[in-house]
Amino acid sequence: MKVRTGRIAAHVFMLAMVLLWIVPVLFALYVALRPEKETNRLGYVSVAHKLTFSNFSDAWHQGRIWHFFMNSVWITLPAVVVTLFLASCVAYVVSRLSFKFNVALLIVFTAGNLLPQQVLITPLYRLYLAIHVPHFLSDSGLLYDSRLGLIVINVSFQLGFSVFVLSNYMKTIPRDIDEAALVDGASLWTRYWRIVLPLCRPAMAALATLLTTWIYNDFFWAITLISHGDKRPITSALANLQGQFVTNQNMISAAALMAAIPTLVVYVLLQKQFIAGLSLGASKG
Amino acid sequence: MVVDTEVQAPPPVPRRRRRRRQLTRRDKIVATLFVGIPLLLDLAFVWFPALASVFLSFTKWTGVGSLHLKACGKPPLPGLPQPGCMYGVQNYNIAFTNYPDFWPAVRHNLIWLIVFMVIAAPLGMLFAVLIDRGLRGGRVYQSVLFLPVMLSLALIGIIWELIYSNNYGLINTIIGHNKNNNLIDWLGDPSLNLWAILVEAVWRQSGYVMVLYLAGLKAVDPALREAAKIDGANEWQTFWRVTFPTLKPINIVILVVTVIESLRAFDLVYITGKGNPVKGLELLSVEVTQNIVGETQRIGFGSTLGVVLLVISLVPITIFLVQTFRRDEEER
Amino acid sequence: MVDQSVPGVASPSRRTILKSLAGLAGIAAVPGALAACSSSGGNSSNTSGAAGGSSSAGAASGTISFGSNYSDPQPKDAFAALTQSATASTKVKVNINTVDHNTFQNNISAYLQGTPDDLATWFAGYRLQFFAAQGLLDPIDDVWDKIGGNFNDATKSLSKGADGKYYLVPIYNYPWVVFYNKSTFSKNGYDIPQNWDQFIALAKQMQKDGLVPLAFAEKDGWPALGTFDIINLRVNGYDYHIKLMQHKIPWTDKGVTDVFDHWREVMPYLQNGANGRLWQDAAKTLENKQAGMMFQGSNQVAANYAASNLADLDFFPYPEINSAYGQDYMDAPTDGFMMPKKGKNKDAAKAILEYIGTGDAESTFLKTDHWDVGVAQGLVAPSYNAIQKKSTEAISQCKSVSQFMDRDTVPDMATAMIKLIQGFIDDPSASSVQSLQKSAEKQAKTIFG
């Protein structure tokens, strides 16, 4: 009986919370589906006379959502792949070889990820202006104001967390496995690439989800290190849209909701592995 | 800090020697690259800038032209900038005594932290515990509650503006406070706006904590809980006496995430103010940004605020590192 | 002293005031009267300017990129029209790089030092001199050799840096005045207030009639600075205002207290919750006739009005407060274009600037822009509507025009004032003003020190 009331209370609580959590998103959707003229007259909280996708299509065209979205893709994808690769390399060495500076290394990486971004930005900005790169990598000729620059800082900054999670995860994989391979004469690279890495798939999936969200959603690096509105990834381009359609909140909401779709897709696709991968990484962490 | 390499690499000597020998020359090169490249990136783009910020905090510089290593003199023209110069601790002095946003910013960061600790973290924990107990529909709950974590903070700011909007917004319309004589200015009123923004922040942060915690709970041996139940402990006792202590590692992760996220808080305020200063929403991160990427750059002063932020963040970072790596030590 | 080093705009002697009066009159649709001071070539000189632009363009070619903060749809169109006709005239292709208004301004320093475009939109006044003095802009005296005849002296001095060299080619300016809907005034029998008492009485009446007397917004940070500017200009006059902006008068001065005292008087009639409202939303309440008046730039209010409502819109200059200064001054910010030092295609950029510095170019821009007014001498663009004609007149009737607080003082000081004024809007008490003034002075000392 007591358990039952507890269950009911729990359900009521969770339902209330879920409602609270979903209302802002649904409300934004509702506003986005209504013509601006109507909400200007009636306010956002009113019965819709007309629902339309015109805000979405207008935002899509005028806001060039696809263009900015592709910018994000070309930043996020390489950044996530490179981060995972480099982090797993470090994690492998740290977890498998008795390297003298293992702990020091881990500390350098982990602590680096915890620094506030704002502390880095000024020198980083000067550094980015000073580093010249070939034009085929960056049309500005510098790390500043280039896709490459955003990839580099996102990789450098996110390495810390990924190294931390992956090294913990790798420590849970029995050493016997690669020692057996060692006996067969497998090289370090083979042991890493063929044996340990495939076993890290759950952790990699979890990390990939998180990194994708973080990098895709990054706002700070993009607004400070990109000067051309055209080159911005979508999240910071939203600020641009906000400037452009400042009077048309309906269209901004539509744009914002469209910008959220990719991360939601990633989450839905990787949700299953997500908790599992994270759990092993984090609890042993 | 526990930088104890001896403990970290404890295998008996002969074994170690054996493994060393098995690393071929090529393996060694690969291993060096494995560590070297990421380390170089991390040092060049994270640690070097962080340390350089500390240096810059002792200068006065608009960021234009060169930075000279001599003390600042009188400017050539009042108000017009001079080349960069050494300013001693003057920036710190200005921050602590003259800059009106400094103490409000510190206070707001602290409030942010407290709200995250007292509301967001426990709420997220509660969500996780309830879902982990196998509540029916837990999967749906989890997905919805996690939703805001997948959204960018910039986007969250935009979404919530519809809720808080003065004349048109959800709240004011529902409670009938959308007329000129009675409207509640959620995002503008300096005594309200921080709290309004914090609701948005908690909305996201709880989901984040929930997922971390769920991950932790999944790793807890169910046998432990069963054993406690058999011993006659109720759920409450089981959680606090059995489950919670085993979750120490995840608790520390959450503690650190909470502290760091509240120090890093930036995007929501930035998007709400459209990059402009808003009274009531001063935060250290925002102040740093406004000073170093605003229309005029006060690099030295901005870096000073950054260093203050850095010093504050070092506290949780150190706690985290000590806890984590001490555990490593114990495990061996 | 400092007066010499910051000529023109920054330190208006009586002479420059007279000059600008004369010059501005030249722009106005009052030909003859004072226009004698300046070569009133009118349209003929503009055409020659245009010809000059295109002739020199033969040498320059290629493509330039143009950084633009005209991110709102309509100015964006006007700007696109301008660059298209510039390309037609100079054969230089123009790629526009649009960044939203606020971000553009916030990032300007980083932008100019990083990888700026060949040309960029910017503002006249101290805000120009500040960046010019840091060597971030290229002087364009050679451009001005060709286009100089198209502008009067006031506009010329606005386009110069502290070193006396030219750094800006202006395109338009616009007045900060009190907007209202003619229908609201005629329906309720309101009269245009001439002085402060009438203004307050009118506001009171509007409140009784269920209107928000003055639509007001401050979320963008800068709009409320305009209110400070105008009350200061009305109470203390232009010279005082400019001296205060340059910190030659302390912020703790009694005159500043007077400004806030007057502001406090009108505060009950300003729209509530301004700190959380964008000016566009405030303008909307005026357009929807929920508000009776709104004090803001025509570049904002008129630009935000739907075309169908524009005929109902009218304005009057801010009422007199101190009879010594009457309605002699106003903020009439001038916008234009500058050439970042780190830009690449200089010759082509200059060719474009030469084209822009003509009455023809301004007319092209103003075809789609129905809220700003051109600054070329004697220009009355054929597309002017009633608001624009009246704007030209209103500006020309001023003895002197200031730019706007965030253009007349060091940017840091303007930022500091934004925060302080937001505090004042939240708590307009006398004691809050006292601490506001103290804080402003303290910050001014470090900023100007």
Topology of helices and strands:
The complex is a heterotrimer of chains A (285), B (332) and C (449).
Chain A lengths: L1 H31 L3 H7 L11 H9 L2 H32 L5 H13 L2 H14 L16 H25 L3 H9 L4 H12 L1 H17 L2 H6 L8 H11 L4 H36 L1
Chain B lengths: L4 H4 L4 H10 L2 H32 L2 E2 L6 E5 L12 E3 L3 H8 L4 H31 L5 H13 L2 H12 L5 H5 L18 H26 L3 H9 L4 H12 L1 H17 L2 H6 L11 H10 L5 H33 L1
Parallel strand pairs in B: 2-3
Antiparallel strand pairs in B: 1-3
Helix pairs in contact in B: 3-15, 4-15, 5-6, 5-9, 5-12, 6-9, 7-9, 9-12, 10-11, 12-15, 14-15
Chain C lengths: L1 H4 L8 H14 L15 H15 L5 E6 L4 H18 L2 E6 L2 H6 L1 H6 L5 E5 L2 H7 L8 H7 L5 H6 L9 E6 L2 E6 H7 L7 H13 L3 E4 L7 H23 L8 H13 L12 H9 L3 E7 H7 L8 E4 L12 E3 L2 E5 L7 H11 L2 H10 L4 E2 L11 H12 L2 E3 L2 H4 L2 H16 L3 H19 L1
Parallel strand pairs in C: 1-2, 1-3, 6-7, 9-12
Antiparallel strand pairs in C: 3-10, 4-10, 4-11, 5-7, 5-8
Describe the structure.
The complex is a heterotrimer of chains A (285), B (332) and C (449). Chain A is built from 13 helices and no strands. Chain A is mainly alpha-helical and 285 residues long. In chain A, helix 5 (102-114) packs across helix 7. Chain A is globular. Chain B is mainly α. Chain B has a domain at 102-297: Orthogonal Bundle (MetI-like fold). Helix content of chain B is 69%, strand content 3%. Chain B has helices spanning 5-8, 13-22, 25-56, 90-97, 102-132, 138-150, 153-164, 170-174, 193-218, 222-230, 235-246, 248-264, 267-272, 284-293, 299-331, and strands at 59-60, 67-71, 84-86. Chain B has a 3-stranded mixed sheet. The longest helix of chain B has 33 residues, at 299-331. By secondary structure, chain C is an alpha/beta fold. Chain C folds into 2 domains: 2-174 and 335-388, 3-Layer(aba) Sandwich (D-Maltodextrin-Binding Protein, domain 2), CATH 3.40.190.10; 176-331 and 410-448, 3-Layer(aba) Sandwich (D-Maltodextrin-Binding Protein, domain 2), CATH 3.40.190. Helix content of chain C is 51%, strand content 13%. Chain C contains 21 helices and 12 strands. Chain C has helices at 2-5, 14-27, 43-57, 73-90, 101-106, 108-113, 126-132, 141-147, 153-158, 182-188, 196-208, 223-245, 254-266, 279-287, 298-304, 346-356, 359-368, 386-397, 405-408, 411-426, 430-448; strands at residues 63-68, 93-98, 119-123, 168-173, 176-181, 212-215, 291-297, 313-316, 329-331, 334-338, 373-374, 400-402. In chain C, strands 2-1-3-10-4-11 form a 6-stranded mixed sheet. In chain C, helix 4 links the parallel strand 1 (63-68) and strand 2 (93-98). The longest helix of chain C has 23 residues, at 223-245. The radius of gyration of chain C is 21 Å and the shape is globular. Chain C starts with a helix and ends with a helix. Mean pLDDT of chain C is 84; it is low at 1-58. Chains in contact: A-B, A-C, B-C. At the A-C interface, helix 12 of A face helix 5, helix 6 and helix 14 of C.
